């Protein structure tokens, strides 16, 4: 199957799931996760009309997207993997959004590096909802502390755009659903407590579970394998 065909299929599935869940058409965006796939694959996806991409390693993303941005400056890049503080400088240079903000220290570093280059960047706060995942704010209280930190005006170069999570890797649909509904609930509670944050983005759902995520309120699904095929980690 070609990348173009895969993209068509995934987009059809997204539209179908929106409808089935009673969601507005086009309320769910597709982030194509291109990690471990070459720049050529990204270019093929761009040609097929895809404009948002996700990468989880800064080094790899920088190498790939410096090239891609030369001919396609409009291609949007989101960093979705766990981010070490010493990679933030590079990350904010190349990315439009950092979806894996998972600690206040990291948010401080994002602010510091963005201020230096006079750039404003979007972030999502990652919520830890799966036993088998390591990253994300551990609970509602720690999440709210981060929101409060931003609300206090400490980060003028950071736009809090929403929440992100990774569901557990399991066949247990109830567990997956719980992970997504928890994050949706957290977002509702934050909007009530902090009306200045509308949190338009809930980044939830991957190749295996994006249909469930859409039923549970996702506004952005991060899909890699179903678009680009299996990743070869040995290379
Ligand atoms: C790799 C990755 C994805 C995409 O996973 P697929 O199963 O290939 O769709 C989504 N989100 C994050 C955070 C990832 O690291």
UniProtKB/TrEMBL annotation:
Q: Where is the Alanine racemase N-terminal domain?
A: 6-231
List, alphabetically, the InterPro entries matched.
Answer: Ala_racemase_N, PLP-binding_barrel, PyrdxlP_homeostasis
According to its UniProt entry, what is the function of this protein?
Pyridoxal 5'-phosphate (PLP)-binding protein, which is involved in PLP homeostasis.
| Gene3D superfamilies hit by this protein | Alanine racemase (3.20.20.10)
What this protein needs as a cofactor is: pyridoxal 5'-phosphate
**RNA-binding among keywords:** no
Supply the alphabetized keyword list: Pyridoxal phosphate
Q: Which GO terms describe its molecular function?
A: pyridoxal phosphate binding
Under what name is this protein listed? Pyridoxal phosphate homeostasis protein
Give the UniProt family note.
Belongs to the pyridoxal phosphate-binding protein YggS/PROSC family.
UniProt-listed CDD domains: PLPDE_III_YBL036c_like (cd00635)
Q: Name one Pfam family in it.
A: Ala_racemase_N
Provide the positions where the record notes the PTM N6-(pyridoxal phosphate)lysine.
Answer: 35
């Amino acid at each position: 199957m070609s990348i173009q065909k895969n993209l068509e299929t995934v987009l059809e599935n997204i539209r179908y799931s929106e409808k089935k869940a009673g969601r507005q058409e086009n309320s769910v965006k597709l982030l194509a996760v291109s990690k471990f796939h070459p720049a050529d694959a990204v270019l093929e996806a761009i040609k097929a009309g895809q404009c948002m991409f996700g990468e989880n390693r800064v080094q790899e993303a920088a190498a790939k997207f410096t090239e891609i941005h030369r001919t396609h400056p409009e291609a949007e890049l989101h960093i979705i993997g766990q981010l070490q503080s010493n990679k933030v400088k590079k990350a904010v240079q190349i990315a439009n959004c950092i979806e894996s903000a998972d600690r206040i220290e990291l948010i401080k570093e994002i602010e510091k590096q963005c201020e230096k280059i006079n750039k404003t960047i979007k972030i999502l706060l990652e919520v830890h909802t799966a036993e088998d995942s390591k990253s994300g704010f551990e609970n509602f209280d720690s999440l709210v502390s981060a929101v409060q930190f931003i609300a206090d005006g400490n980060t003028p170069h950071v736009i809090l755009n929403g929440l992100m999570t990774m569901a557990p890797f399991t066949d247990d649909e109830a567990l997956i659903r719980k992970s997504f509904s928890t994050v949706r609930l957290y977002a509702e509670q934050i909007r009530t407590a902090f009306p200045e944050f509308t949190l338009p983005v809930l980044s939830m759902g991957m190749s295996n579970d994006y249909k469930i995520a859409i039923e549970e309120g996702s506004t952005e699904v991060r899909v890699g394998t179903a678009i680009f095929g299996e990743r070869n980690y040995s290379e």
